[in-house]
Amino acid sequence: MKSVKEVSNLTGISVRTLHYYDEIGLLKPASWSEAGYRLYDDKALETLQQILFFREFDMPLKEIKVILENPDFDKNTILRSQKKMLELKKDRLVRLIDSIDGILKGENKMNFELFSRNEIEDLYESMIGNMSGERLQAFEKQYGTLEAFKEHFMENAGSLKAQQNFKKVMEWYGDKNEMLDAVKCPNNSEIMQAYQNRISAIYQKLANKMGCDVTLFEVKEIVGEYDFIAKQLYQMKDVSKLLLELADRFENDSVMCSAMDNRYGQGAAAYIGKAVREFYSK
Q1: Fewer C-beta within 10 Å: the chain N or C terminus?
Q2: pTM for this structure?
Q3: Distance CA 45, CA 18 (A)
Q4: What is the mean predicted confidence (pLDDT) over 210-217?
């Protein structure tokens, strides 16, 4: 057992912060000493470590609490995703340092183009590299050869409309390099499917709440889980823009609305959209 002071010295977290985590029910001490001081065991320290991982990605404490209290919480899957995100952040910092070195040496040239041809070609190579053999064969059948498909992709990706779409996706990720990192280092298919299954289950939980006021904590709690899983799936720090655009489509896109209602129940699309908008409302 470690005292609150010992935990503070070990982790660098202030005693006041640990007291606050206890007050809001985020991290409870394992027991109390006879003198009334908080005591933490190895399990509590493991939970604190997980909290600190989440805080590294600027996740609000209320969302961390929702995730940790979720019985479906898969620590290993989350840790793998967090590791990948930290590796991407590390690679990003290395590139920034290299860029600064280039500027100091007078080798760097200013470039305000959204996506250059070389970057579009990198996107293509990354996309092809992560495709299954079945999908590659489908493209070969449709275009004759993969080289013909590449020419088609490069031509269309360089168009004004495609660049505008790239810009929208880039806004979701925060900047161009974050987007390129996510495209080049996607989750493997098993992890991707696991996240998609979680999101589908979340949609169903929200649909089951139809009739409840979307301002209720129990509804916001589910959307909070949706927010967290989406961040891990899309490797974004902030998914609010993306999920709000999806919410708008749930409510106003007749095709998507119909598909959602058929799967999750009549009225599900509109209710889910409304719940998401309420969650992100200021």
Answers
A1: C
A2: 0.42
A3: 11
A4: 93
